[in-house]
UniProtKB/TrEMBL annotation:
PANTHER family: MULTIDRUG RESISTANCE PROTEIN MDTO, P-HYDROXYBENZOIC ACID EFFLUX PUMP SUBUNIT-RELATED. It comes from the Bacteria. The lineage of its organism: Bacteria, Bacillati, Actinomycetota, Actinomycetes, Kitasatosporales. It is found in: Cell membrane. The keyword Transmembrane applies. Keywords: Cell membrane, Membrane, Transmembrane, Transmembrane helix. Belongs to the YccS/YhfK family. The chain crosses the membrane at residues 35-64, 76-94, 100-117, 124-144, 150-170, 440-462, 468-485, 490-507. Residues 428-553 form the Integral membrane bound transporter domain. Residues 367-410 are annotated as: Disordered. This is FUSC family protein. InterPro entries: Memb_transporter_dom. The keyword Repressor does not apply. It is a multi-pass membrane protein.
């Protein structure tokens, strides 16, 4: 019973880790709720009125969520600076509240300064948020100069409670966050393999659903890998260890994605295009009419389950002779040992299992350190030796990516956004006061919020629409909750805490859902302040719609950044990094020096993530341009395919100095020339549609190499895998030309 209970807790923890990588959302929600609870407990203990309880709860929430630094020392510094900023903002809000013109002018100046402060990094962003939100708090509770001494004490208690929650009760160090992210990576890796295990037995009516699940979990695994890469520098003290972890995470991701492609190929009449895993709604590979039915099916199901266990469990939880035997069997497939009698495509799946098991071993060694080697077979020993050789060869490259020239003046993003939000807020103040002289600030708040973390008019439009939808739904819920709660103060505060937790936990998942919880919470706060009415909540809808409209208008008129321009800039950045990765990988595979390929691949992935986020307005379900939406999705899927092959080439090239069965081949450099040329031609056309560029076509990459290449049983001088990646990359790059309007040229 005890073992079963522990197993259940482990499974529950794995699900939680997979759904919330690094437990970042859970920690944010719990920390904010804890800070508010501590504030309410202290203030209630000294008997302050309800208005000050509400002010304390709001101040504690602001002091907690505004801090964004990763290192505790930086968080403490920002929190210490935030307190005087909050007190000054509170004072000015109370003093200027009765002076309409002066108060409005100062509010606009404060908004401009808060947005402009983003150029100074996380600290500037946090102090700007604190200044704006505390001024808003003063308006919300209708602070007066006579109430300031008591409110100073309330804000001081709130900041102290926030510090206690952050540094004492729920501390979160970069190393701890990275450790939880690594566990999340394992959990999502296991989930992906569980989905892949469904493929061999999925019938024609089930395979579409399994394939969609495969796409979702492949994307989630990649998301977690990016999160890990973004925290390696802060979470590890040794740069060599950080680079090793980055390498092993990339290896595991590539091996898992390749295994999915091999499984799809084993079910189809031809090799599966990588685009199948990246394009939503892509057709099932041709020839898929029945599941795998050869004699290897049972062994395949068994080994996929075994691989999932190897990927999921840390060394301390996955030790023992039985698992060592499973690991040895899977690694033996890399050496062509005990391959079952099956079709070549199915045998490739077993080889892919061996490569995934090697990636699992490398990940385990990097995360958990040395392990018991007493049960190793020769195949496992060789895999360990290869991994040890790679670890020894890792050196921190002195190569540095040139820093991009930062725009100046009005072209600077922070300056442009500050001007836009200042204009939008001025319009929101004027219109909001026409709707209500008491609660006009809701329009300003919405205008402010739609500009946060947005960079184009389209993004602001979509964010405004989502906030309005969430607000409407929240008003309906708020009306019902206010009637149920009545005058039960602590019941209302308890529900407020629940909604705040839900708000922070759902924020990265759905902005509409977050807006719903915010509005429902505000309905309860109005009830506590005895200012609740259905008319007040309806007014909130009107003010929200006005603020969103003012934000969109300002973004479209004042120094606008149209979605097309934004996406084109990011698309060029992705193509430039793709060309850089491809050129460096092939140069190293040809005998040259490719530089820090792992870091270049990470930069490519980050650029693609930025592009994917920027295209959301173009792919949103409400967009009326259906054909354009499909075209954008197709282009992004092709770029994800290119990135996968670029990462795979970089990973293979990194093996070259230490792997006993891979040798450099100078002919690859010539074969790569056409690919790089086409990438650069497409980038030039996107940057300037008038540029006279053409892509080159010709024979396949494989046929460009002379026949007679020597082969070893496992790889060969020029591996089939490298050729396949180059061929698929060539095809994907050529496929980008049509939707982007680049014409073809003569064969090369």
């Amino acid at each position: 019973m005890r073992a079963a209970g522990r197993s259940g807790r482990v499974r529950l923890w794995d699900r939680l880790a997979a759904s919330d990588p690094g437990l970042l959302r859970l920690t944010a929600g719990l920390r904010t709720v804890t800070a508010i609870s501590l504030t309410l407990a202290v203030l209630a203990g000294i008997g302050v009125p309800v208005t000050q309880l509400v002010a304390g709860a709001m101040a504690a929430m602001v002091a907690t969520f505004a801090i964004r630094e990763k290192q505790p020392a930086g968080q403490a510094g920002t929190l210490a600076l935030g307190l005087p900023v909050a007190l000054v903002s509170l004072s000015l809000g109370a003093l200027l509240n009765q002076h309409v013109v002066a108060g409005d002018l100062f509010f606009v100046a404060l908004i401009f300064s808060a947005v402009y402060g983003r150029r100074f990094g996380d600290r500037g962003t946090a102090l700007g948020l604190i200044g704006f939100q505390i001024y808003f708090l003063s308006l919300f509770v209708r602070a007066t100069p006579g109430a300031l001494p008591a409110l100073y004490g309330v804000v001081g208690v709130a900041f102290a409670a926030s510090a206690t929650a952050r540094f004492v009760l729920l501390p979160q160090t970069p190393a701890g966050t990275l450790d939880r992210l690594r566990r999340a990576f394992r959990a999502r890796l296991a989930q992906l393999i569980a989905s892949q295990a469904k493929l061999p037995d999925a019938g024609p009516e089930e395979v579409e659903k399994v394939l969609e699940e495969l796409r979702t979990r492949t994307a989630r695994l990649h998301e977690t890998a990016l999160m890990i890469q973004g925290r390696l520098e802060d979470g590890t003290s040794d740069p060599a260890v950080a680079r090793l972890l980055q390498r092993r995470v990339a290896d595991a991701e590539i091996a898992a994605e390749r295994l999915g492609l091999l499984l799809l190929t084993a079910r189809s009449a031809e090799r599966t295009d990588t685009l199948t895993l990246h394009l939503p709604g892509a057709p099932v590979p041709s020839g898929v009419e029945s599941p795998v039915r050869d004699g290897a099916a049972a062994a395949l199901r068994r080994d996929l389950r075994a691989l999932r266990v190897l990927m999921l469990r840390p060394a301390g939880e996955a030790s023992g002779t039985a698992l060592a035997q499973v690991r040895n069997r899977l690694l033996g497939y890399r050496e062509e040992e005990n391959l079952p009698e099956a079709s070549p495509a199915v045998q490739d799946v077993f080889r892919g299992l061996g490569e995934a098991a090697r990636a699992s071993l490398g990940l385990r060694l990097a995360l958990d350190g040395p392990q018991d080697e007493s049960a190793d077979t020769p195949a496992t020993t060789r895999s360990r030796e290869e991994l040890d050789a790679e670890d020894t060869a890792i050196e921190i490259s002195e190569e540095r990516t040139p820093e991009a020239t930062e725009p100046t003046g009005l072209a600077r993003p922070t300056t442009r956004a500050a001007l836009q939000v200042a204009v939008g807020s001025s319009l929101a103040i004027a219109g909001g006061e026409l709707l209500s002289s008491q609660r006009w600030y809701w329009a300003v708040l919405t205008c402010w919020i739609v500009f946060l973390n947005t960079a184009s008019t389209g993004e602001i439009l979509v964010k405004g629409y989502r906030r309005l939808l969430g607000t409407v739904l929240g008003v309906v819920a708020g009306i019902g909750l206010a009637g149920l709660v009545g005058h039960h103060t602590w019941t209302a505060f308890a529900l407020v805490l629940v909604f705040i937790f839900a708000m922070f936990y759902s924020a990265p998942l759905s902005y509409t859902l977050m807006s719903f919880f915010v509005t429902a919470m505000l309905g309860l706060l109005y009830t506590l302040l005895n200012t609740y009415s259905a008319e007040v909540l309806v007014l909130r809808i009107e003010e929200t719609a006005l603020g969103a409209a003012c934000g969109v208008f300002a973004a479209a008129v004042v120094l606008p950044v149209h979605t097309d321009r934004r996406t084109n800039e990011l698309l060029v950045a992705v193509l430039d990094r793709l060309a850089d990765v491809t050129r460096g990988a092939v140069d190293q595979l040809s005998g040259g020096t490719g530089g820090d390929l792992v870091e270049r691949a990470r930069e490519l992935d980050q650029a693609l993530a930025d592009l994917r986020a920027a295209t959301q307005p173009l792919t949103h379900p409400i967009t009326p341009l259906r054909s354009r939406r499909d075209s954008v999705r197709y282009v992004v899927a092709l770029l994800e395919t290119c990135a996968y092959h670029g990462r795979s080439l970089a990973a293979t090239a990194e093996l070259l100095p230490t792997h006993p069965s891979i040798a450099a081949d100078p002919r690859l450099r010539g074969a790569c020339g056409r690919i790089v040329h086409n990438i650069e031609a497409i980038a030039a056309h996107v940057a300037d549609p008038r540029a006279a560029v053409e892509i080159e076509s010709g024979s396949s990459i494989a046929s460009m190499l002379e026949p007679g290449t020597l082969r070893t049983p496992r790889y060969g001088r020029v591996t089939d895998r490298v050729l396949r990646h180059l061929q698929r990359l060539d095809e994907a790059v050529s496929g980008l030309a049509r939707p982007l309007g680049v014409t073809g040229g003569p064969a090369r």
